[in-house]
Specification:
single chain; GMP Synthetase, Chain A, domain 3; 5 helices
Length: about 180
C-alpha cells in the first residue's frame, strides 16, 4: 500500500471523526488466565504468529494484531506472572483467577484529525478477579507488591525517557 492508497482509505474515517469525535474513541481489551498451580498467566492473543497492522479505526482490515492490543496483552501477562510470583513468595492461597486490562484510545489523535486529541491511551484499567479466601490485609499486600514489581505496569505508570532514532543503510543521515 502506498501513501495515496492509505490516504484514500483513511479519508472517510477522518471525516467521520471530525463530524463525530466520539466515534474515534475505541476501548481495547486483553485478558489472561492465572494458573492455579504454576507461576503462569496464559494470555490469549488468538494468533500463533503475530502480524501487526493498522487497527480498523485507522483503516486496517482487522485481520492483523493491533499494537495497542499487544501492549494490553503484555501488561496482562506481566501483571499476571508478577502476581503469581508474589503470591507464591508470600505463600498466598491463590486457587486461580483472571486478569484483564482495557484502555481507551481516541483515534483522532493517531490520524491527525484533532490536535487536542492525545496520541496513545487516555486511560488503562488493570483488574484481577482472584479465587482466594485470604484476608483483605494480605490481598492489599499482594496488590502493593504486584504494582511494585510488574515491569510493564511500572513502565506505564512511570515512563522512562523514550528515544526514537532512524538509521539508514548509508550510515549517518544528512551527510
Amino acid at each position: 500500500m502506498d501513501a495515496e492508497a492509505l490516504r484514500a482509505l483513511q479519508a472517510p474515517l477522518k471525516d467521520k471523526y471530525k463530524e463525530n469525535p466520539d466515534a474515534a474513541v475505541v476501548t481495547l481489551k486483553a485478558s489472561g488466565e492465572l494458573d492455579g498451580a504454576a507461576i503462569v498467566c496464559k494470555v490469549d492473543t488468538g494468533r500463533a504468529l503475530v502480524e501487526a497492522g493498522l487497527h480498523p479505526a485507522t483503516g486496517g482490515p482487522g485481520t492483523q494484531a493491533c499494537s495497542g492490543d499487544m501492549l494490553l496483552e503484555a501488561l496482562v501477562a506481566c501483571a499476571g506472572v508478577t502476581l503469581k510470583a508474589v503470591a507464591t513468595a508470600l505463600a498466598f492461597d491463590l486457587r486461580g483467577g483472571t486478569v484483564s486490562a482495557e484502555g481507551d484510545l481516541d483515534f483522532r489523535g493517531t490520524l491527525g484529525v484533532a490536535r487536542d486529541a492525545p496520541v496513545g491511551f487516555r486511560a488503562i484499567r488493570l483488574r484481577f478477579d482472584l479465587d482466594t479466601d485470604e484476608p483483605q490485609e494480605r490481598i492489599d499486600t499482594l496488590t502493593k507488591l504486584t504494582e511494585r514489581y510488574c515491569v510493564v505496569y511500572r513502565t506505564l505508570a512511570n515512563p522512562p525517557p523514550l528515544e526514537l532514532a532512524i538509521a539508514t543503510g548509508g550510515g549517518t543521515a544528512g551527510n
